[in-house]
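Subject: mismatched residue count in predicted assembly?

I count 492 residues in my input, but I want to confirm that the predicted structure covers every chain. Input:
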Amino acid sequence: MRSSILRYVSTRGRAPALGFCDALLAGLARDGGLYVPESWPRFSKDDIRALAGLPYHEVATRVMEPFVAGEGGLDHDTLARICRESYVRFEHAAVAPLLQLAPNLWLLELFHGPTLAFKDYAMQLLGRLFDHVLAERKSRITIVGATSGDTGSAAIEACRDRSAIEIFILHPKGRVSEVQRRQMTTVLSPNVHNIAIEGTFDDCQDLLKGLFNDGTFRDEVNLSGVNSINWARVLGQIVYYFYAAVALGAPEREIAFAVPTGNFGNIYAGFGAKQMGLPVHHLALVTNRNDILSRFLESGTLALGSVEPSLSPSMDIQVASNFERYLFEIYGRDGAALAADMEAFRRDRSLTVTKSRFEEARHFFDGARVDDDETVATIGRMYEETGEVLDPHSAVAVAGAERCRRNEAVPMVAIATAHPAKFPDAVERAVGFRPELPPSLADLLKRPERAATVANDLMALKAFVATRLAERARANDIGAEGGVSVGVGNRR
Ligand SMILES: *Cc1c(COP(=O)(O)O)cnc(C)c1O
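Triage response: the counts match. Full output below for your records.
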């Protein structure tokens, strides 16, 4: 580990390198690329051994520290406090417990956070990091996100009641499950603004792009994002690879992981852990029927199809934005070459990598595709064999883990990304009953909801956001010097 300042560079090579805090606030780089560390901090075997037996939040502090070291205001004690506070509301004492399913086959349960999906593990950190950095800079931001499921509720839980943040989350009216909607709309904190858009999820995403593309509006309200391209989310996800691997014997043993994949965010964090020196044997990249990434691992070609609905909706994605971060590595960190190929990909909807780059990818990744029938069958079989009720995303991981074992002696960890009660219909199909929500959410279906309905219209949305921000500024009495609309030192 080293203590010099680590800078972040864009995968397209043309945006200025930034420190951690600026990369955190920027999200997407100005040249359209994604931020990655200039070089990966390395952990020695002794560094890894020293993680054994530590509580989750201490592992988080140690793994994250070299990525933020030297940054103004994020000293060791501050980071340690943020990590500690991020995981106090998790419902399992181990935070990320491992469960054994079969000989050398394990389940890493990442659904014990406030919204029951793995996104809490990084989002809880992200909300607190934002709040801390903004307080240091005496600045405020407006976060706007669109959600078809888990991201919205995780972001709302992470940002609620944070004094420097107003958060607006768009969801397609009537098109998210009741549990997912209520996890958002029952949060009544004054800085949380739920918007039901009269349209589809794609409409919500188009509206979001429209907001970000309006430079004046973006600067006026200091717009920021929480989607999975934010570097800090990747960083927060590297932690559980270390935590699980050490529990199973790293650095003395190699460990393999099977990751249910949509946007390539979670699995890219596993690659990051390997770059840092964790002995990750290989990664199984498992998709549902939306299989652009598992097809890439068969052919070396990334070919865009259309999104098909599945039983694991959080992985119904075609353009896996974080994959660009991995491509950057197999392109030998040549941002100019990658920028040219990404432009061509957007035009042609297809990208073929060179043979040597493809072989590098195949060396570390196995691909698997698990369809809905196999998902349901896996939930049923695991319930019979182990008594464990899996959610459909976790079942995709387990089926892929079984198929992608390269070596029986290497522990294989399937990542469970959601609690079964989040997807009761699919689970009921497999096991014949509906799983119960955990105690903290038991009364979810009885709590009052609050959401505004807005037409599928960019002008109407902008007017809504502006009105809400003005109301909040008056309520907070922070409008005296030009309103919330003036952000300090945080222009993109
Ligand atoms: C977001 C999500 C995924 C996919 O994760 P990526 O980082 O996008 O690959 C898988 N399962 C669940 C439950 C999710 O919410």
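Residues 458-476 form the longest helix (19 residues). Marking this ticket as 'not a bug'.
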